[in-house]
Design a protein that fits this description.
Order of helices and strands: HEEEEEEEEEEEE
Structural class: mainly beta
Number of domains: 1
Helix content: 10-25%
Mean pLDDT: 85
Strand content: 25-35%
Radius of gyration: 18 Å
Number of helices: 1
Number of strands: 12
Length: 164
């Protein structure tokens, strides 16, 4: 009986890991919050998006997501460090294969994606996606790590509420 209890307890601990969002698809996009620092590693991901509009994407992809609240998001997402030729795309939708045209992008360290300057503009109450991938010129081997500084004003999600 003790072995069965230990096995059940162990399986309950492992269950959240089995269903964790890993950015490997639109449905498994990782929630992005602000302010935060996001460390992305595409080297173990898969190349499941072949293009972003006219921009080819032969390398691996990891997707993040956020949903705007009562106002349009107007923060920035800035790559601050990287060990490979990256590309970061802000998207108003998400799909495998031929992905949508980005509304904003960057492939340069310290050059932010400014959501207030997105084209078309961001709107309230909409789900957005941030794709981290390799540059087209880097080919299929453009994979590695990039650090993103996510600055307000992305929507804030209420984590808890209590009245004392």
């Amino acid at each position: 009986m003790k072995k069965l209890s230990a096995l059940v307890a162990l399986s309950l601990c492992a269950a959240p890991v089995a269903y964790a969002q890993d950015g490997s698809s639109c449905a498994n996009a990782i929630p992005m919050v602000a302010p935060s620092t996001v460390n992305v590693d595409t080297s173990t991901a898969t190349g499941w998006i072949n293009s972003f509009g006219p921009l080819l994407s032969p390398s691996n992809d990891i997707i993040y997501t956020f949903t705007s609240g009562a106002t349009a998001p107007d923060g920035t997402i800035t790559p601050t460090a990287s060990d490979y030729a990256f590309a970061i795309y802000a998207l108003s939708s998400c799909s495998a294969g031929a992905g949508p045209v980005p509304i904003a992008s960057t492939g340069t360290l310290n050059q932010p994606i400014n959501l207030a300057a997105a084209n078309p503009p961001t709107v309230a109450g909409h789900q957005y996606f941030i794709a981290v991938t390799g540059s087209t010129a880097g080919g299929a081997g453009a994979n590695g790590t990039v650090t993103l500084a996510v600055q307000p004003n992305l929507p804030v999600t209420l984590q808890s509420f209590e009245v004392n």
